[in-house]
Design goal:
heterodimer; A: FAD/NAD(P)-binding domain; 7-stranded mixed beta sheet; B: mainly alpha; 3 helices; 83% helix; 0% strand
Chain lengths: 501, 47
């Protein structure tokens, strides 16, 4: 007799979504989280009276979130308050141009008429093609299992309209955006998003080329910080009997005759369950929690062949003055060639890039309660990838260097006297992300996402090597990002219920 | 027939060489990157 029906290792968005849906379907469910806070990368921590977001800074494409709450028998709005953020971005380009993209597509067209009049036609085609694609893919693909060629074929036969988008998956992010736009400034504004999927524009999948459009469906910030999303899912799950324990580290999965039946904790105690779901990175799950000795050789070769997405240091800043910004997100961007150059001539050679490519997030614009009265927060994400093992350097020294770089950029673009108004500043390095979130090499976007590691070539939600083991989260089918990670949780729960319901 | 097949093969190889030399550095890097991943695909499919 097992202690639980389902144990979920990790309380990230994927783990919480799978756990809540399992509980709703009558499974006695326990979630074990090694950290003292839930949410993984989509979380918020408090320091010196400021509430900083760990990594994720907004949620866009909220349909998976709405679907999750519908499946849980509730309404998303009863569990979290999502504040719309408009404009989507404010841009500062390498030649000093500043402009903002409003959410409304019509209003955005007017901005593009000003900055790149020759690309208005391209923008209209991009919108027309992209909106159809997003609508068709959302309904047909996003929440559907697609771990095998058979499942992919079934999806294609059921939804033949999605076949016209197949070439997009074979193209690169750069290939897609360059087919619509010519103007260098316009290209900058739609190319940097490839780094949100952990790859440079010349390597990232073409499907991410449409992120720049999906943002126009609305971007939102949860009141109280990004932790509002996992907290809402946890609350809904707990209403169905789901149990969550924090500060509990799982050391090993218990496996006998190729079947998972429980977990061994760091203190040596064991908890048994009929089904184990791992929300950890797939490489950590298989190579550490399961162990290569319990896996067939082809499986070890396959899982070891994946590379992690890039790490990006984050700098958390508390200010006693309002920053001079226009939007929740300000992007300091550079040319598409420079975005690729950072990858090829710095990151791949383990060098620290000196290019300014950053995302400045201003959450207190949407929710002033995150900081003491009259004060503000800036979360500064270095969008240029930083190597996990910098050549001839170490992250303890680089912490100080990154702080100084962030201050210099803020002085240049945001607040000239920012140095006099910083009350708090801290850096999260790739090593910190690896320790806190268990993301190997600090790769915050899960596994590297190109056409050879997506869909059925990404680790399966239902393990093929270990019976009763399921995987969810950013390294599984659908990949990183708030909506896709929630979708991965829904997909995993579908397999679990199909097999054991 | 044998001659024709050899000729076709030569045309294809010549076409690939021309396409490669005319590709941008970016495209070449993409092709090399994907080429390195392809041998792993049969293993990845079963992970």
């Amino acid at each position: 007799m097992s202690d639980y029906d389902v144990i979920v290792v990790g309380a990230g968005l994927g783990g919480l979504s799978t756990g809540a849906l399992a509980a709703k379907n009558g499974f006695k469910t326990l979630i074990l989280e090694q950290s003292d806070i839930i949410g993984g990368c989509c979380s918020t921590f408090e320091s010196n009276g400021y509430k900083f977001d760990v990594g994720a800074s907004i949620v866009e494409v909220i349909q998976p979130l709405d679907s999750l709450f519908e499946m849980l028998g509730g309404k998303r709005s009863d569990y979290m308050d999502l504040i719309p953020c408009d404009p989507i971005y404010s841009f500062i380009t390498d030649d000093g141009k500043r402009f903002s993209y409003p959410t409304d597509i019509g209003a955005c067209t007017k901005v593009i008429e000003d900055i790149a009049p020759g690309d208005v036609e391209g923008w209209n085609s991009f919108c027309s093609m992209g909106l159809t694609m997003i609508e068709d893919m959302m309904d047909a693909v996003m929440l559907s299992p697609m771990n095998t060629f058979g499942e992919a074929m079934k999806l294609a036969l059921k939804n033949p309209q999605i076949m016209k988008f197949a070439p997009t998956f074979l193209r690169t992010h750069q290939g897609v955006v360059k087919s619509f736009y010519k103007d260098p400034v316009m290209l900058q504004s739609v190319a940097f998003q490839s780094y949100f999927a952990g790859a440079p524009p010349e390597l990232g999948s073409g499907v991410f080329g449409y992120i720049a459009l999906s943002e126009h469906l609305g971007i939102y910030y949860p009141r109280g910080g990004m932790i509002g999303i996992p907290a809402g899912i946890m609350k809904a799950g707990e209403e169905h009997g789901m149990e969550v324990r924090t500060c509990v580290k799982v050391e090993k999965l218990l496996i006998e005759n190729g079947t998972a039946f429980g977990v061994r904790l760091e203190d040596g105690s064991e908890i048994t369950a009929k089904i184990i779901v791992s929300n950890l990175n797939a490489q950590v799950t298989y190579l550490k929690l399961v162990g290569p000795d319990r896996l067939p050789p082809w499986m070890v070769k396959g899982i070891a062949s994946y590379t992690q997405s890039m790490p990006c240091p984050m700098i958390y800043v508390g200010l006693d003055k309002k920053p001079e910004l226009e939007a929740h997100h300000t992007i300091v961007t550079s040319s598409i060639e420079s975005m690729n150059d950072v990858w090829n001539n710095y990151y791949k050679l383990n060098l620290i890039p000196d290019t300014a490519m950053s995302l400045v997030c201003w959450p207190t614009e949407a929710d002033p309660s995150l900081a003491p009265e009259g004060k503000h927060i800036l979360n500064f994400l270095c969008n240029a990838p930083a190597p996990y093992a910098p050549l001839g350097d170490n992250w303890d020294r680089l912490k100080g260097w990154y702080k100084e770089q962030a201050i210099k950029e803020l002085e240049r673009y945001v607040l000239p006297d920012v140095r006099d108004h910083i009350e708090y500043i801290e850096v999260s390095t790739p090593l910190d992300f690896e320790r806190r979130l268990l993301h190997p090499q600090g790769g915050i976007y899960g596994l590297f996402s190109d056409m050879t590691s997506l869909a059925m070539f990404r680790p399966r939600s239902r393990s093929k090597a270990i019976r009763n083991l399921y995987l969810t989260g950013s390294s599984t089918h659908l990949g990183g990002g708030v909506p896709t990670t929630i979708a991965s949780g829904i997909v995993t729960s579908k397999y679990l219920i199909e097999d054991h319901g | 027939m044998k001659m024709f097949k050899r000729l076709m093969l030569l045309v294809v190889i010549a076409g690939l060489i021309v396409a490669w030399t005319q590709s941008s550095e970016s495209t070449k890097r993409y092709i090399i990157h994907i080429g390195k991943q392809v041998p792993s695909l049969p293993y990845r499919y079963f992970v």
